[in-house]
Amino acid sequence: MTREERVLRTIRRESIDYLPSNIYFASPETKENLRKVMNFETTKDLDDYLENHLYITAMMDDIFRYRGDHEFLRKMEQTPFAKVDWEKGILYDRWGVGFSIYTDGINMIHFPLKGKSNEEIDNYQVPDIHIPGNFDLAEEELKKYSGDYLVVFSGYGGIFERAMFLMDYEQLLILMAWEPKLCENLFDKITEYKIEQAKMAVKMGFKIGHACDDLGTQNGPLISKEMFRKYFKPRWKKVFEIFKSAGMPVMMHSCGNITEFLPDLIDIGLDVIEPVQPVMDFEFIKKEYGKYLTFWGGIS
Q1: Distance between alpha carbon 218 and the CA centroid of its chain, in Å?
Q2: pTM score, two decimals?
Q3: Rounded-to-integer distance, Cα 179 and Cα 257, Å
Q4: CA–centroid distance for 22 within its chain
Q5: 276 in Cβ contact with 285 (< 8 Å)
Q6: Fewest CB atoms less than 10 Å from the CB: which of 8, 131, 234, 273?
């Protein structure tokens, strides 16, 4: 049984030889440092040692995922996908967002819509996802690692997150309360982009759909259930439907305790929730939602 088969069978609740596991590093820099300390030649060698079952790849519009790989960024400077200010330590993506390349974690430095007028926000245009080269690395890594791993086409930078990348938390949350139509217009543009991304995941032959929106704090949801149902549930449903119509299970990442949102996510087709953070009540969510969901996580 391959690692890919083991994960998919687990999600389908079919018999397996042992429970698959995956230790995911939120910081690529930390993973690289661990590889060096443990004297592994490649990160794949480290993944094999850890018995990791998933391999996450990405399109080039998600260049922020490679912010710590400066050698790779120098190559990507020759493409439309990355502009780097090495002196200030800022990586700019095609959305116009600036990410720090010299600090650990995902830290935004430049928000292109921060402080902009409602008209400027309303007129913002998302990038064309079908630009040549955007999916080349994802296709290459899918062919290279399928079977050895369940290869996941990264959905990080979701509908809420992308909007936050563009204008920062404070401004976005204020506008969600005071300018709902303005926010819905921006969310719709991002959703159409994510729908096209989902279609490409199906076309390229990925075997699981992946979505992401960090919607929780350690104590509970970042927004109200009413806001979630108004802004995000119907839009994520459109994305999930692309995966489900192709027979793919859907996995979603959300940091924080989003127990309150699980029934709505199940309602639109969620199969796997990641992570299950230690602040969540494991026994409760297993009892209430274990019939519908596979859980990845539980260790912080």
Answers
A1: 19
A2: 0.95
A3: 26
A4: 16
A5: yes
A6: 234
Is the pLDDT higher at 31 or at 261?
261
- Find where tokens 């296709």 sit: 139
* 263 vs 149: CA distance, rounded Å: 30
Q: What is the pLDDT of residues 80-116, one digit of tens each?
A: 999 999 999 999 999 999 999 998 888 999 999 999 9
Q: Structure tokens of 255?
A: 């940091």
Beta-carbon contacts of residue 13 (< 8 Å; ≥ 6 apart):
none
pLDDT of residue 79: 97
**Alpha-helical runs (H) found in the chain:** 3-11, 28-37, 43-49, 70-76, 118-122, 136-145, 159-167, 169-178, 180-204, 225-227, 233-245, 262-267, 282-289
- Give the strand order in the sheet containing 250-253: 209-212, 250-253, 272-274, 294-295
Max CA distance (Å), the chain: 57
Closest by Cα among 137, 129, 162 to 55: 137
Kindly compute the dihedral angle of the four CA atoms of residues 277, 110, 251, 3, in this order, to the nearest 10 degrees. -90
Where do the domains of the chain lie? 3-295
Q: In this predicted model, which residue has the larger pLDDT, 18 or 24?
A: 18
Q: How many CB atoms lie within 10 A of CB 209?
A: 27
How far lies 270's CA from each of 40, 139, 211, 247, 274, in Å? 36, 25, 10, 13, 11
Rounded to whole angstroms, the Cα distance separating 214 from 216 reads 6
Name the percent of the chain lying above pLDDT 90.
Answer: 89
Domain 3-295 sits in CATH at 3.20.20.210
CB 147 within 8 A of CB 79: no
Rounded average pLDDT over 168-186: 97
Residue pair 155/211 in contact by the 8 Å Cβ criterion = yes
Helix, coil or strand: residue 150: strand
